[in-house]
Design goal:
27% of the residues lie in helices and 33% in strands. With 276 residues, the chain is of the alpha+beta class. It is globular and about 65 Å long. The relative contact order is 0.16.
Length: 276
């Protein structure tokens, strides 16, 4: 049975019993700030939906989603359960209530139950991502040619930006209260960019790209250095594919270190529309 939750007080023993589980923990629930932003501060608010799955009145699953109706988009912010039936019931609930929506899930890559559930729904899986945090400052790197996003370069930035993600160039450019975007400009040409949040205590590099013809020329390190400078008073983290050795080496050279046990994986499920 699924119930919409308006009070998490009775759920705290369940949350505390699973939040540190190496298999069924959630990568969006690792810090107090994440816990507030992805669960505790959202319950009952517009565009958020907290659901409990119960078996004989016992809570066996807790899930929190952001629902953007205008974009027909659902994102799982938190998913806690050790029971396959809980994931199945949540998938059935989404299929019945959000037909035709895109649903994104970010989860612990060790969580075999959510993987099994999404595989049965023919979701598309991205590679496992390694979490890294900034521990050192690459002070010897200059930032010549790195500029903040501005109107003269906006179209070039959007044209270069990754498109197969929720935070496209257009959306980042329209969200200056959440993101800073820095551009690598060579002789007036935008050859790379880096998007980073700036509104959290631990900010995240969301997207980072340098044109292939301009790689191995120092532009990546310059962009990272600029992002680090902009975020000096706060923490910084990122996710990178676990087998992307060149990227891992770049981030390590810029002062980032791997965080054991906090990797994540993403899957996208295009919920089928209800047949006429």
């Amino acid at each position: 049975m699924i119930r919409i939750l308006s009070d998490l007080g009775p759920c705290m023993p369940f949350i505390n019993g699973i939040k540190d589980d190496p298999v069924y923990s959630d990568p969006h629930f690792c810090t107090p700030e994440q816990q507030r932003a992805n669960l505790f501060d959202t319950v009952g608010k517009k565009d958020y939906l907290a659901l409990g799955v119960f078996r004989n009145e016992a809570l066996i699953g807790l899930f929190n989603f952001v629902i953007i109706e205008a974009e027909r988009y659902v994102e799982m912010l938190i998913g806690f359960s050790r029971a396959y039936e809980a994931y199945k019931e949540i998938a059935d609930y989404l299929a019945a209530n959000y037909a035709g929506f895109q649903a994104d899930f970010v989860f612990n890559p060790q969580n075999d139950l959510i993987i099994k559930t999404l595989e049965k729904r023919c979701a598309a899986f991205d590679p496992e991502m390694q979490k890294m945090v900034l521990t050192d400052d690459p002070t010897q790197i200059d930032t010549d040619g790195i500029v903040p996003l501005s109107d003269p370069f906006k179209d070039a930035y959007i044209a270069l930006h990754t498109t197969d993600c929720y935070w496209t160039g257009e959306k980042v450019a329209d969200a200056p209260d959440m993101f800073n975007a820095f551009l690598a400009v060579d002789d007036g040409v935008v050859v790379g960019y880096l998007d980073i949040t700036h509104c959290f205590e631990e900010n995240e590099i969301y997207d980072f790209k340098v044109k292939e013809a301009y790689r191995r020329q120092g532009w990546g390190r310059k962009l990272l250095k600029k992002a680090i400078e902009s975020n000096r008073s706060k923490e910084m983290m990122l996710f990178v594919e676990v087998d992307n050795i060149p990227a891992l080496r770049l981030y390590e050279s810029a002062g980032f270190r791997k965080v054991p046990g906090q990797n994540s994986q993403m899957a996208t499920w295009n919920i089928p529309p209800i047949s006429e």
